[in-house]
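Duplicate of #3305? Posting structure anyway:
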C-alpha cells in the first residue's frame, strides 16, 4: 500500500475506481482466454479483479502474473535451445565451413604476396611485408578473431560443448548488433548480416617495411612520408602487383593477366624501374602503360611493343611511331619490315 499512497492520496475513491475500470476494460480483450472478471468484496465493498480461467479456482492478478512469467521463462529456455541448435548447424556445419575455406585461401594469398615482395632487391634495400591481423573482440560476449578462427578451423566433431557455446554466443551478440544497426540506419537486416559474416571484416591489413639496419615496423603515413619518391612508388607498386597476381591466380591458366598504368612508375629511379619490369615479367602480366619518359627497354623484359605518339606544333592529328624491343635492342617496326623484305628478296634471287 505504501507504494501507491503518494500516487493516489490526492484522488477520490470514485476517480481511482473509474481508473481501475478503464484499465480493466482495456486489457479484457487481450486476456480474454483467462476470463477476467470484476467483483465486489462483500465486507469492504472493494472492487476486485480475478481471472476465472477454469471457472472453479479464480486467481488473483499477482498469481497470474507469476504464472505467466514462469511460462515465459520456460519458453525462452526452449527457444534458446532451438536457437542454439540453429546457430550450431549454420555456423559450424554450413556457413562456417565456407568461411573457413575462404580464410585458408586468404592466408595462402598473404604468404604468396610476401614471397613475391621479399624477392625484390631494391636499390635502397627497402623490403616490404604484409600482415593480416585479427581484430579484437567488441564486448565480453564476443570472441576475438584469433580465437574464433581457431575454433572454426577445428574439426566440428572435436569441439567441446563450451567451445560451441562460445561461438554461438559470439554470433548471437553480432546478430543483435546487426538488428540494432539495421533499425538505426534504415537498411535491411540482410545487409548487416552479410557484414558480420564477411570474414574480411574480421581482419585488418597492415604493411610493414625494413630498410638498412632498421628493424621491421609498420609503414604508417608518417613513415611513408619520409621515404624518397622512388621508395614511395615502390611501396605502392610492389604490394599492388603482388595482390593483382594473387587474384589472377584463380583464373584459367591460359587467361590473359592484364594490367594498365597511367604515368607508370613516375618517380622510380632507373635501377628500380628495371626491377619493376622484372617483377611484371615474373608474374606473367600483360600490360599497357602510358608515360612521357618511360620506354621499358630493359634486359628484364623479353619482348615489348612501344608506340611513340608524336604531335608537332599542336597539330590537329598525331603520328604513331612503332618500335619493338626484343630483349636486347629497340628497333623501328618499319626497319624490321624492310629487313624482312631484303631477306626475302635475297632468298628468292638465290633460288633463281
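Output from current build:
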Amino acid at each position: 500500500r505504501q507504494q501507491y499512497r503518494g500516487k493516489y492520496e490526492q484522488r477520490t475513491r470514485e476517480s481511482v475506481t473509474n481508473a481501475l475500470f478503464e484499465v480493466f476494460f482495456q486489457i479484457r480483450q487481450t486476456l480474454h482466454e483467462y476470463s477476467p472478471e470484476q467483483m465486489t468484496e462483500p465486507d469492504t465493498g472493494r472492487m476486485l479483479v480475478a481471472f476465472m480461467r477454469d471457472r472453479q479456482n479464480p486467481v488473483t492478478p499477482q498469481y497470474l502474473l507469476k504464472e505467466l512469467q514462469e511460462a515465459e521463462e520456460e519458453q525462452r529456455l526452449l527457444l534458446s535451445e532451438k536457437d542454439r541448435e540453429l546457430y550450431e548447424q549454420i555456423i559450424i556445419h554450413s556457413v562456417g565451413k565456407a568461411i573457413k575455406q575462404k580464410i585458408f585461401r586468404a592466408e595462402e594469398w598473404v604468404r604468396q604476396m610476401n614471397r613475391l615482395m621479399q624477392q625484390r632487391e631494391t636499390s635502397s634495400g627497402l623490403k616490404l611485408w604484409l600482415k593480416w591481423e585479427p581484430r579484437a573482440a567488441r564486448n565480453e560476449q564476443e570472441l576475438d578473431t584469433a580465437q574464433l578462427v581457431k575454433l572454426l578451423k577445428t574439426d566440428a566433431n572435436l569441439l567441446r560443448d563450451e567451445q560451441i557455446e562460445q561461438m554461438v554466443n559470439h554470433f548471437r551478440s553480432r546478430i543483435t548488433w546487426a538488428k540494432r544497426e539495421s533499425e538505426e540506419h534504415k537498411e535491411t537486416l540482410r545487409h548487416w548480416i552479410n557484414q558480420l559474416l564477411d570474414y574480411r571484416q574480421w581482419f585488418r591489413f597492415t604493411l610493414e617495411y625494413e630498410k638498412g639496419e632498421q628493424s621491421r615496423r609498420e609503414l604508417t603515413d608518417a613513415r611513408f612520408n619520409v621515404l624518397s619518391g622512388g621508395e614511395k612508388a615502390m611501396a605502392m607498386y610492389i604490394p599492388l602487383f603482388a595482390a593483382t597476381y594473387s587474384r589472377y591466380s584463380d583464373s584459367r591458366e591460359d587467361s590473359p593477366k592484364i594490367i594498365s598504368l597511367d604515368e607508370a612508375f613516375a618517380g622510380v629511379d632507373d635501377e628500380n624501374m628495371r626491377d619493376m619490369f622484372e617483377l611484371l615479367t615474373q608474374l606473367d602480366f600483360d600490360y599497357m602503360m602510358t608515360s612521357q619518359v618511360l620506354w621499358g627497354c630493359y634486359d628484364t623484359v623479353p619482348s615489348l611493343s612501344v608506340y611513340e605518339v608524336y604531335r608537332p606544333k599542336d597539330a590537329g592529328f598525331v603520328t604513331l611511331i612503332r618500335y619493338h624491343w626484343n630483349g636486347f635492342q629497340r628497333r623501328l617496326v618499319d626497319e624490321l619490315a624492310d629487313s624482312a623484305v631484303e631477306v626475302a628478296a635475297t632468298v628468292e634471287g638465290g633460288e633463281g
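Confirmed duplicate; merging threads. The chain has eleven helices and ten strands. The chain has a mean pLDDT of 79.
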